[in-house]
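To: structure desk
From: M.T.
Subject: fold request, one chain
Message: Could you run this one when you get a chance? Sequence is below, nothing fancy, just the single chain.
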Amino acid sequence: MRSLSSDGYVRVRSAPASASLAACLRAAEAVGLEAVGVTTVAEERAGAADGAAGATASQEGGARPPGVRLVRITDAAIASVGGALDHGPVEPAPGAIVRASLCGRCPGVDLDPPARRSRYLANLFEAYQQTVLSGAVRVLGSPFTLGCFPASATPAELPAGELASLARSMFEHSVAFELLATAHFSYPYMPVGQFVTEYARVVAIFARAGVAFLAGSGAQDATAVGNLRFCRRLMAAAGVELSQMVDLARIPGPTRAEP
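Reply: Done. Structure tokens follow.
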């Protein structure tokens, strides 16, 4: 499989220096990436909202190597079963790609979940569906990596019919499915090979529906930028073609796979 040309999810901060925007972009150039999707950690977004000078933002103009395209990613937490989003203290910047994920702030799903498994799963899929239907997001961040929450389900426990329904909605609304290189960290008790097998079943349902995918390292400093080997492993296991990947170097571009 040919190399992926972009890293769709890198988290930067002003300190330490290895986690700065400048360091991460230099690392992206060094590993041959054409583009990198960057988000600023929540603490520094809050500082910017309070009027503090954000080092990562001020560095941006001079930090970017000429061969690497910078694409801004805005993180949002799914905050209700109805698809409400919590952007934190700062609203998305114009032109930024909004990435929505479960972050422990959605009552009935990853916060105070119901005891009945059937109700939990119904809430989970409704939250994802309403988030997609809102039209406010372009990427679902590492969906269905639920092992770190008070109530969870393994990928194998997710009903295929509900997955297919969500996949159709994502295709119709041009919302991409993020493949995160650290996705397996959510299930520390599960062997990595088992996670790949189970999660690839989920990913394959979305791939067959024509949904596009965005690969991200989840890097928190320069040493991990472009480390997308696990993403490629998931792609191979699920039958995802390179043509189905969002190419950040050519944004604005499709967040659905081309026919």
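Reply (cont.): The chain has one domain: 6-250. Let me know if you need anything else for the meeting.
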